[in-house]
């Protein structure tokens, strides 16, 4: 199997992959540049589709909890550090007015491996990430 720097550069130029990604793809495809490019594109598509799907699931779960009522705020945390506290009225209004922006925001939270929690009036905290992962 011949994996030259020229082949790696060709894959990088077409896919904007990292050097490591390009080399691994070429190894998996036995040095075939076209197949390596296709492999990288397929992997990226499935990854973005998965993030989009998970983001949609999280938005639906948040909406469902808001519809049930008695929710006071939504908290987004990263490594147990609070990044954002959103009062429920602002969250509900923001989700209704700008659902695509909410999807992007939750998608970013997923990518950054943030935890999204809903706090109810009785003090119960619901971890939305765990609810989505159970399905």
Write structural notes for this entry:
By secondary structure, this protein is an alpha+beta fold. The chain has two domains: about 45 residues, Helicase, Ruva Protein, domain 3, CATH 1.10.8; about 80 residues, 2-Layer Sandwich (Dna Ligase, domain 1). The protein is built from six helices and four strands; from the N terminus they run αααββααββα. It has a four-stranded antiparallel β-sheet with strand order 2-1-3-4. Helix 1 runs parallel beside helix 3 and helix 3 crosses helix 6. The chain starts with a helix and ends with a helix. The model has no long low-confidence stretch (mean pLDDT about 75). InterPro entries: DUF4342 (IPR025642), UBA-like_sf (IPR009060).
Q: Give the tally of β-strands.
A: 4
Report the biggest beta sheet as strand number plus sense, adding barrel if it closes. 4 strands, antiparallel
Tally of separate domains: 2
* CA-atom Rg in angstroms: 20 Å
Reading off the top of the CATH hierarchy, the class of the largest domain is best stated as: Alpha Beta
Helicity range of the residues?
55-70%
Pfam family, one: DUF4342
InterPro entries: DUF4342 (IPR025642), UBA-like_sf (IPR009060)
Domain DUF4342: 45-120
């Amino acid at each position: 199997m011949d994996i030259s720097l020229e082949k790696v550069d060709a894959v990088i130029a077409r896919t904007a992959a990292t050097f490591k990604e390009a080399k691994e793809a070429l190894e998996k495809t036995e040095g075939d540049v076209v197949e390596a490019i296709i492999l990288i594109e397929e992997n990226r598509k499935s990854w973005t589709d998965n993030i989009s799907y998970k983001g949609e699931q999280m938005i639906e779960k948040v909406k469902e909890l808001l519809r049930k009522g008695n929710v006071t705020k939504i908290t987004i945390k990263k490594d147990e550090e609070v990044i954002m506290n959103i009062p429920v009225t602002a969250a509900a209004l923001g989700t209704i007015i700008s659902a695509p922006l909410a999807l992007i925001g939750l998608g970013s939270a997923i990518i950054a491996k943030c935890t999204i929690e809903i706090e109810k009036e009785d003090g119960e905290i619901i971890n939305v990430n765990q609810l989505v992962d159970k399905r």
